Amino acid sequence: xxxxxxxxxxxxxxxxxxxxxxxxxxxxxxxxxxxxxxxxxxxxxxxxxxxxxxxxxxxxxxxxxxxxxxxxxxxxxxxxxxxxxxxxxxxxxxxxxxxxxxxxxxxxxxxxxxxxxxxxxxxxxxxxxxxxxxxxxxxxxxxxxxxxxxxxxxxxxxxxxxxxxxxxxxxxxxxxxxxxxxxxxxxxxxxxxxxxxxxxxxxxxxxxxxxxxxxxxxxxxxxxxxxxxxxxxxxxxxxxxxxxxxxxxxxxxxxxxxxxxxxxxxxxxxxxxxxxxxxxxxxxxxxxxxxxxxxxxxxxxxxxxxxxxxxxxxxxxxxxxxxxxxxxxxxxxxxxxxxxxxxxxxxxxxxxxxxxxxxxxxxxxxxxxxxxxxxxxxxxxxxxxxxxxxxxxxxxxxxxxxxxxxxxxxxxxxxxxxxxxxxxxxxxxxxxxxxxxxxxxxxxxxxxxxxxxxxxxxxxxxxxxxxxxxxxxxxxxxxxxxxxxxxxxxxxxxxxxxxxxxxxxxxxxxxxxxxxxxxxxxxxxxxxxxxxxxxxxxxxxxxxxxxxxxxxxxxxxxxxxxxxxxxxxxxxxxxxxxxxxxxxxxxxxxxxxxxxxxxxxxxxxx
Length: 606
Known about the structure:
The protein has 18 helices and 20 strands. It is of the alpha/beta class.
């Protein structure tokens, strides 16, 4: 017997009329409501999604009245299968946006500013890693506090224009590069409720199928972009209070501002740099810096931008990141612990110590508009901290879709098999040897594990392809060498544990997103992980305890953490449910963190 219910939300499942949602003209907006959530009202009034469910589902899963399958009104529930022609995470989810109707609990700041972010990434349209999430989340939080915020982004060829609302050509101008003035277009549009200015040069820069890795020279492209943003401000008479630059890609902008554009017409702005990962320095030859109109030889000194590691070499090199540190009015990194680590190690530590008075560590937040299990358009069942029963259905839905479970209802036995999820770039920083070991250990403990991530290094990719061939046909492990925004939402909702065994981690978002979705973190104590996850068995910090933490980089340390985590899950159900409720209630939103950025902006503004 099938249960029939009316559909009141969009984007989870897909019937014959779901193709209509791919038309951007038919997109529905998700609006931030006064409860700081997302309203899905009228999102699928034109489409009825059919999903098949068994009548005994609610009794076996314990679906609750709020946040449940019934509450959100799905018509007929059909369990996915790994043999489906289209994988369950690719079945035509609607595009969605987040409009900025201000939640009542977000107070407007009294001293309002104009802030422009200059960045290589922005979620969701140009996202490679956490940088894109941070830029979008911080921009939205400052908008909600009443500030005027714009994001300036290269108009990558790979950006899907249908994801941009009100895209309009606003300025055509020339910007300098390598002895020539390049015709350049500036477009305005809105992405996820945030105003964006897209910079599009007329030559080959930013062409290709991906944000990074095009056939052009990336360093030279970002040098052009940094100057093109300042040139646009000058041409249009735009004088923001703050220009907020991110990572090495925009590290040349502070140099260009203070040594060129400040002497022309841009007098008001002050520069804030956020360093998201100190391992990317932006190595640059002097003649490359010359291309943007600066004299590269003037910056080849210890107190400016020379790469200390290359002193005495032929040729010596510059570091755009170091130059950005020296020339910015304030420098932020993404957690207090990572700040301490960077002051004590790495070749940039001397520069950071010299500029310690303007160097601050602020833990990132997460964008609670995009990451909200109570309104997430990608989930088969919604849930929240007060009632997370729908999470069980999400987990079984993912298990069915990946071939880790079978049957048309959620058996009690499935709930006794912990699901560990690891969503990460497969690079050395992320603790590859521990991720590989976790596959074996989770299987030995009788759990299941799903890894979602891409390996930019072909050797790492080859190693993980071997693990795919070894494990992906079994009943315990799935390794998906890809990235999918849709699948990541589903995996966070399905996970019992989120594994983050990084060797170093400037901040980390996975552990915070995981907690938002009721996944208890298992992390190595480093950087931002040490600032956001506190061990369950640490009695002095019992009030803050929210995960399982280990310190060593050896396999035994990971084994002990996973063993404690599995024992708690299986042997202490009441305590476990309390932990899940507790981690879901942790406020890692940008609203808290944005206030600290606002204080920095205020401290340096003209």
